[in-house]
């Protein structure tokens, strides 16, 4: 049993290296893992690291993981580092959330030593591999900004994102809670969520519900149409009154190309 668990741990390490081999901090993690041993720790002693929140995880992916763990047990260990009496998660947040939901008391872990700087670098590199949930990014950005007093420019340097990308990701945290639940549940990815940040709450919720079954390109077109409707509705252009053959109409001048012939035609058709 122990040999099988250690084999799973090694396979987990191999996957980690394959996914993030371009990041130098992985070499540090690799060296620590090779020296470490698989242990079972009380889940009560394990917490997300300061860059994450378990509130940002949920939906279909977690539901499927819960089902898998219920029938096959939790075999892939969670990678943690120790600080005092607590163990903080480096890799394995989804497994942690699923195990917590199942009220599992003891979970397999690989304990390593990692500097705070390496933790930040690795976490951001890992997040770049999964852009579906911008709330996870937004949480990490906010906590990095608060802890290190980093500005948006520094976040851009750390992540390789543009100022526009960072701004859109951060603004997703300001979306209504119902939309944030849709993001966490996997119904809206970053490409769709960022289209909602400029709308007020009722408009954003209306669009979000329509976005679920659409492609990102279709969502972009729908958002563009909605924005035009709002702009026309809120237009401050003057109204024009026109009388023709005792019939009077009042229209909003939304197009400078409206001619007298057009107005005459509209008046003739009005009742």
Describe the protein's architecture and organization.
The strands form two sheets. The protein has a five-stranded mixed sheet with strand order 1-5-3-4-2, sandwiched between helices. Helix 3 packs across helix 4 (93-101) and helix 6 crosses helix 8 (163-171). It has three domains: 2-129, Conserved hypothetical protein from pyrococcus furiosus pfu- 392566-001, ParB domain, CATH 3.90.1530.10; 131-234, Orthogonal Bundle (Arc Repressor Mutant, subunit A); 239-269, no CATH class. The chain is built from 13 helices and seven strands. It is an alpha/beta fold and 271 residues long. It has helices spanning 2-20, 25-35, 60-72, 93-101, 116-127, 134-148, 152-159, 163-171, 177-184, 190-193, 201-211, 216-233, 260-269; strands spanning 38-42, 46-48, 78-83, 86-91, 106-112, 239-244, 247-252. The longest helix has 19 residues, at 2-20.
In short:
The protein is of the alpha/beta class and 271 residues long.
- Please report the distance between the alpha carbons of the first and last residues: 86 Å
CATH architecture of the largest domain: Alpha-Beta Complex
Low-confidence stretches: 5-22
CATH class of the largest domain, anyone? Alpha Beta
Whole-number tally of structural domains: 3
Strand line-up in the sheet with most strands: 1-5-3-4-2
What integer is the average pLDDT?
79
Rg, alpha carbons: 27 Å
SSE arrangement, N to C:
HHEEHEEHEHHHHHHHHEEH
> What is the β-strand count?
7
Query: Do you know the CATH topology of the largest domain?
Result: Conserved hypothetical protein from pyrococcus furiosus pfu- 392566-001, ParB domain
CATH fourth-tier homologous superfamily of the largest domain: Conserved hypothetical protein from pyrococcus furiosus pfu- 392566-001, ParB domain
């Amino acid at each position: 049993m122990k040999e099988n668990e250690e084999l799973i741990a090694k396979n987990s390490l191999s996957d980690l290296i394959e996914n993030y081999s371009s990041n130098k901090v992985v070499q540090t993690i690799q060296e620590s893992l090779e020296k470490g041993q698989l242990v079972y720790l009380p889940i009560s002693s394990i917490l997300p690291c300061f860059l994450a929140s378990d509130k940002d995880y949920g939906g279909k992916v977690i539901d499927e993981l819960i089902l898998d763990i219920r029938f096959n047990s939790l075999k892939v260990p969670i990678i943690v580092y120790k600080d005092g009496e607590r163990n903080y998660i480096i890799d394995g947040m989804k497994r942690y959330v699923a195990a917590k939901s199942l009220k599992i008391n003891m979970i397999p872990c690989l304990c390593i030593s990692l500097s705070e700087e390496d933790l930040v670098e690795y976490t951001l590199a890992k997040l770049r591999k999964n852009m579906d949930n911008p709330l996870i990014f937004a949480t990490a950005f906010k906590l990095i900004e608060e802890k290190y007093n980093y500005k948006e420019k520094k976040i851009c340097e750390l992540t390789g994102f543009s100022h526009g990308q960072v701004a859109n990701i951060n603004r997703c945290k300001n979306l209504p809670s119902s939309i944030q639940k849709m993001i966490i549940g996997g119904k809206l990815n970053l490409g769709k969520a960022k289209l909602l940040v400029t709308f007020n709450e009722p408009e954003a919720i209306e669009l979000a519900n329509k976005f679920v079954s659409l492609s990102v390109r279709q969502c972009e077109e729908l958002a563009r149409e909605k924005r035009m409707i709002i702009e026309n509705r809120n237009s401050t252009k003057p109204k024009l009154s026109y009388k023709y053959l005792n019939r009077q109409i009042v229209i909003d001048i939304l197009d400078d190309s409206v001619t007298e012939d057009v107005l005459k035609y509209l008046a003739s058709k009005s009742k």
